[in-house]
Amino acid sequence: MVSKTIKQVLPLSLIVPVIATAGCGLPSFSEFSTPATTTATVTQTVTKDVVKNTTIVTRNDFSEIIKDTKASVVAITTESSYFSIFGTYTQQGAGSGFVLDKDGIIVTNNHVVEGASSVNVIFEDGTTYKAQAIYSDEYSDIAVIKIDATDLAAVTLGDSEDVSVGNWALVVGNSLGLGISATEGIISAKDVTLSSSDKSVSNLIQTSAAINPGNSGGPLFNTNGEVIGITSSKMSAVGVEGMGYAISINEAMPIIEQLITNGKVDRPDLGIGMYTVTSSIAMRYQLPVSYGVLVTSVDANSIAAAAGIKAGDVIVKINNIDVRTTSELNTVLQKQDMTNSISISYYHGKNLNNVEVVLNK
Q1: 111 is an active site residue
Q2: How much is the pLDDT for 42?
């Protein structure tokens, strides 16, 4: 459990919502919805030498888990003010979170609270707290909220390494901003990587449990009632059914600890502009390779500048790991310890250079 005191390091005005699709008034928590889920009791029917399994379906096998964990799951509502030539307007958003520590530490997604002018945390009994401090990491999409509360019911953390494909999984959260509800599914895949134009997110848990706008930041439970992941509707493709994703709790906890201790996450930054090399880019600029990361600019006081890397160079490896795209470079780089040095292999013209750089320069 986390018991460290958080110091406020970011003004609330710097944080902002991404889930606008679920904007609505404060949700009602008069009822806590449980899913119609199943468990299988197997009996055997013997006919001569053949043994057949008969599955008998029963209901409500997850009700005790929901009952035991609902006090630890919260709805999060946000408001953001925007200015235009037509005046000022307010946009509402909704998300989910869970109690990590009894003294008021709530975990959610960064995109739930990013940029919000006000953030409220609402418990299943209707008790509402205004966020006192928020600490976020955009890259991992994880945020920590501090509220002025004590003796809260904290979740129990599980071990996401122990998860197996086919295990039951429960998503609990503020789906569509309508209040806390639960959905069930199985673990569909582990160690999933999703890539965008500028980064890759790895070690995700894929589940068939429904994840909708408003669920972001809430817990993914195993059947022991332990949190094994942080769900995100942002990573669920529009129009795709039965494929939701959660940040594994083992991957999330080191980031959460840094946010609690330092109010931020220190991440390596080479200080370069970059572009993924393709065959057409390589031909156009007469590059020596048709893969890698083209350096488009170098900050004067950056790690890259100190290493002698210049605009026009092509980075192909970090710590002897191939980086063929900008997202691969970012993924490898963000996994490095800030106290370490790394090796970078890059082409300057037709010459392949190797250089060692110190990350905490």
Answers
A1: yes
A2: 37
CATH of 272-358 given 2.30.42.10, 2.60.40.3080, 2.70.180.20, 3.40.190.10: 2.30.42.10
Q: Under a CB-based contact definition with an 8 Å cutoff, are residues 119 and 131 in contact?
A: yes
Determine the topology of domain 156-262 in CATH: Thrombin, subunit H (2.40.10)
- 3 vs 14, residue with greater confidence: 3
Using an 8 Å Cβ cutoff, are 206 and 243 in contact? yes
Q: Out of 141, 232, 248, 345, which one is annotated catalytic?
A: 141
Is 81 part of the annotated catalytic residue set?
no
**How far is it, in rounded angstroms, from Cα 294 to Cα 329?**
11
Q: What angle do CA 35, 22, 197 make, to 5 degrees?
A: 105
The residue annotated as part of the active site, out of 80, 96, 101, 111, is: 111
* pLDDT, tens digit, 9 for 90 and up, residues 322-357: 999 887 888 788 778 777 788 999 999 999 999 998
Structural domain spans, the chain: 156-262, 272-358
> Could you report the per-residue pLDDT of 269-279, keeping only the tens digit for each?
888 898 899 99
The answer to pTM > 0.85 is no
